[in-house]
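The material for today's practical consists of a large collection of protein records. There is nothing in a record beyond a sequence line and a structure line. As an example, a complete record with its sequence and its structure tokens follows:
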Amino acid sequence: MERHLLIKNYIRTLGFICPVNLLSEKDQDRIVYCLTHQEEKDNKNRDEWGNWEHVYTVNDFSAPYLDRHISEVLTEAGVKRNNIWPEGNDFAFCLTHDLDVISESDFIQLNRRYRRLFQYATSVKEKARLLPYIVYTRIKSILNPVRNDSLWFYEKWSDVEKSYGFTSTYFVYVAEQNLHYFDCDIMPSDEMQYRGKKIKLSAYIRLLKEEGFEIGLHGSYLTFDNLNFFREQKKRLESITGTPVICTRQHFLHYEIHKTPSIHKDAGINIDSTLGFNTNVGFRAGTSMPYFLAENLIEIPQIMMDGALFNENSLHLNQEQANQKIIEIIDMVEAVNGCLTINFHPNYLNREIWWNSYLFLLSELKRRKAWCGSMEEIFKLVNEVCAE
């Protein structure tokens, strides 16, 4: 996107309508540097999953530093700030779920996992070690199909959000081929239970949509730079939902700033929500606001993910610490009238600290009367705000 338009659009999402040249060249440069992820483009460091992570940035990602600075500059210049969120709310939030696991005990899915581990094994010894597991899970999948599972209560996510008057976006994994070591084990034909009935994953996706939840694509690991893979998965999901898919989040947050935006744009995606961190919470581009990556393609950045709060390789917080971190992040987003995008995985339903933290998060957002928007609603709102 052209420099002047990128800056103008960002200023407007902050709630300011003013000439771009009211900002110094230095501040204009800072906006462009952050929102085009120039630091990631210039720095080749990537983590074990091939991703840019918080450890590589020199900026204080723990706070929306760009939002704070530009808001202060324009306020001091006497520019009036308007609230862009509907219903007069001071800030917004977007609830999302990455749906990439639906069972803890399905031997069909376990067999897929072991076969893929076998495919990527680099030694004869490792392949030999995996063979018995492949044979065992295959036999078990035939003789002992899963009849009950500790994860088959996904309606709890839907019902608790509805009880607060909220909705959410489910990013669904549907890849069946061209799979990587890091990919998921589910397929649309796999069975699960929802509201007491055994149904296929594809039927569950349709039910979610019928119940008013938004459906986006959780592109497999290798789609980050492969347009054909991405298009094929998008087409498969659209054949299930019967409607166009316009939003996405990459599996494992596997994203390359040089390549992935063009993949999404060329595939007809309007909204991405990948650009956060796997092992920490915070503001990857210094902003909590949706911003344009290209014409008709916006980023609604992931700010808080459950795994980053609780996993051992991440913040590894206890319940009290997690609640404190949630309050801290909400406070910062509310202070800049921003948008808090949250990612909780449904398969952590049976982990008490995960679930309790989500309930705490929902109650706090309800208490503060924040506006809950879907990806599509936020996309439309941003386009209206930024229109000439």
